[in-house]
């Protein structure tokens, strides 16, 4: 399965809905999308990963890159994920301490910290 | 011992194929269903790393994957033909790897290894001047003995 991407805005947050597989082949598309959003002035991103079937370290690298970009503008990048097999990858790489991970888009949009 | 070998051009689009083949062979070999996601991820990481190394060293040789079914374990070997960092570190000529590899690629490769190490208990990473090899093994569930 290829990667699907769609975006919408809720208040000052931009929701990036990702579906399919994020791997070495598809991750550049996600990178492009995140870079474009930041270049267009969207600095508070919520990446909804509920439709993601597969994520590898290339995808993690893209998310970390996105986080660096929004932080340069004092923005935020939050993730929405409930899938154990995806969460496990964040845990074993220690990235659960880097990304705020929420169980729903509503929760991520409402979060401030 | 039964073996399935796969060789593919070092292109990112073929990594998914390697993942699918590895998972199918692992399932057939008797690897626990609960572990198949880990097998898929680990072989994907190893292949992505190998593809990255071949591309950054401008190699046109294929990436090699061997799926080996043994009596009590299932092993996957992913081999690349790139003189890896650890091997080139021993190269005193000073003309080791080309400098095309960016820090970001390097970091992604290392993150891939970190994921593999976190996922797979039995993993071995070796390298020499001919290339690198990642060998990973998982236990297989023995077939029940029929009465």
Automatic annotation (TrEMBL), chain A:
Pfam families listed in its UniProt record: STAS
CDD domains tied to this protein: STAS_anti-anti-sigma_factors (cd07043)
GO molecular function: anti-sigma factor antagonist activity
UniProt keyword annotation of Phosphoprotein present: yes
Domain STAS per the UniProt entry, residue ranges: 3-112
Keywords assigned by UniProt, alphabetized: Phosphoprotein
Family designation: Belongs to the anti-sigma-factor antagonist family.
Reported function: Positive regulator of sigma-B activity. Non-phosphorylated RsbV binds to RsbW, preventing its association with sigma-B. When phosphorylated, releases RsbW, which is then free to complex with and inactivate sigma-B.
Protein name as annotated: Anti-sigma factor antagonist
